[in-house]
From TrEMBL:
<keyword id="KW-0175">Coiled coil</keyword>
<dbReference type="InterPro" id="IPR019152">
    <property type="entry name" value="DUF2046"/>
</dbReference>
<feature type="coiled-coil region">
    <location>
        <begin position="282"/>
        <end position="330"/>
    </location>
</feature>
<feature type="compositionally biased region" description="Basic and acidic residues">
    <location>
        <begin position="1"/>
        <end position="10"/>
    </location>
</feature>
<protein>
    <submittedName>
        <fullName>Uncharacterized protein</fullName>
    </submittedName>
</protein>
<feature type="compositionally biased region" description="Low complexity">
    <location>
        <begin position="241"/>
        <end position="257"/>
    </location>
</feature>
<feature type="region of interest" description="Disordered">
    <location>
        <begin position="1"/>
        <end position="35"/>
    </location>
</feature>
<feature type="coiled-coil region">
    <location>
        <begin position="52"/>
        <end position="173"/>
    </location>
</feature>
<dbReference type="Pfam" id="PF09755">
    <property type="entry name" value="DUF2046"/>
</dbReference>
<feature type="region of interest" description="Disordered">
    <location>
        <begin position="226"/>
        <end position="272"/>
    </location>
</feature>
Length: 373
């Protein structure tokens, strides 16, 4: 037990120790202040001892509370450090993941851009080749059509000229032959009638005038009534041979009759020959005229076929022109689609870049904000 002289020092030491932790134990500080406010002269020993014991107990409690709080503080500091390390690791992992994803998206975008460019180039080349082929076919068909038309026109003109020349030649020949035949027939008729009249006069002089005159009149009537192409040629001129002197009249008449028979036989044979020749000539002219008509009809049919062929070629040319216009329209539409695809690709690239940048900027903030709280 301490002496009375040392009690004030003990009280001061206790009050100084209790006042060393005012923030940790506000109740003990208030009790110490109340204890210090008690006059030492009025305080009794038991009260001081009781106050000392209570102060010591309060000090022990404060120390234990301080140690407990220190342990909690260390644990919280360690937990905060672990959380900070974990947040940094997660942030690094997310950053790496986003970077890898961004690189993959960038590569995929570049690959898609290359594929689109290759496909566009292939489509453009295919359409260009097809358009060039159609243009070449169109030019070739136009040239071929012009050449065929020119060839057909020249051929038809030559054939028409040849037909017209042949027709004119045949008409001229027909006119010449007809006029020559008519002139020959008229000459033969005139000579025949003249010789018949001479023969009748000779017969009348020889005493057989009645029969010869009747025969001459019959021949003349037949010549006047028969057509020109059916008349026989005039008989050949035969000279009358007078009977020898001293011959009897009957012998002279017999020789004259024989001569007349020979002359009539030759006349009939010559007439038959001339009629046959005239018939052959007329038949030949008829065949030539029929052949010309058939040839003209054939040329007309060929002209009609060529006209139909030209119409078919014109229709084919019109179809090719329409197909060419359709291909040009398709190429223009493909170009518009390509331009729209380029614009859409640029828009998607911009949106992808903005989304990647937004995710990259948003990622660290979303993981660092909880650690700060």
């Amino acid at each position: 037990m301490s002496t009375p002289e040392s009690r004030p020092d003990l009280v001061q030491r206790v009050t100084s120790e209790s006042s060393a932790v005012p923030s940790e134990a506000p109740d003990s500080a208030s009790e110490t202040d109340s204890l210090a406010s008690v006059p030492l002269a009025l305080a009794s020993v038991p009260e001081l001892q009781q106050a000392l014991q209570s102060a010591l107990l309060q000090l022990e409690r404060e120390k234990s509370a301080r140690a407990r709080l220190q342990v909690q503080l260390d644990r919280q500091t360690q937990l905060q450090g672990q959380l900070q390390v974990q947040a940094e690791q997660e942030e690094e992992y997310i950053t790496n993941k986003l970077m890898k994803r961004l690189e993959a998206l960038q590569q995929e975008k570049e690959e898609l851009a290359r594929q689109v460019e290759v496909e566009e180039e292939m489509i453009t080349n295919a359409l260009t080749k097809k358009l060039q082929k159609v243009k070449e076919e169109k030019v070739h068909l136009e040239i071929q059509l012009e050449q065929e038309q020119e060839y057909i026109v020249n051929k038809l003109q030559k054939q028409l000229g040849a037909v017209l020349d042949e027709k004119r030649a045949l008409e001229t020949r027909l006119r010449e032959n007809t006029s020559s035949i008519l002139q020959s027939i008229q000459g033969h008729l005139q000579r025949w009638t003249g010789h018949a009249a001479d023969a009748a006069a000779a017969d009348s002089r020889l005493g057989g005038g009645g029969g010869a005159a009747g025969m001459g009149a019959a021949v003349t009537a037949a010549a006047g009534m028969a057509p020109a192409e059916d008349l026989p040629p005039p008989p050949h001129v035969c000279e009358y041979t007078a009977p020898p002197a001293g011959a009897s009249p009957s012998a002279a008449t017999a020789s004259a009759a024989a001569d007349e028979e020979r002359r009539r036989g030759r006349t009939v044979a010559a007439a038959d020959e001339e009629a046959a020749r005239t018939h052959l000539l007329v038949s030949h002219l008829t065949r030539e005229i029929d052949r010309l008509g058939e040839q003209q009809e054939r040329y007309r049919r060929e002209c009609e076929e060529q006209r139909k062929g030209n119409e078919t070629l014109q229709h084919e040319l019109s179809r090719l022109q329409a197909e060419n216009a359709g291909l040009c329209h398709r190429v223009a539409r493909e170009r518009e689609i390509r331009a729209a695809a380029i614009v859409e690709r640029a828009r998607l690239e911009t949106e992808m870049e903005l989304g990647s940048e937004f995710a990259f900027n948003r990622g660290p903030e979303s993981f660092t904000s909880p650690s700060c709280m």
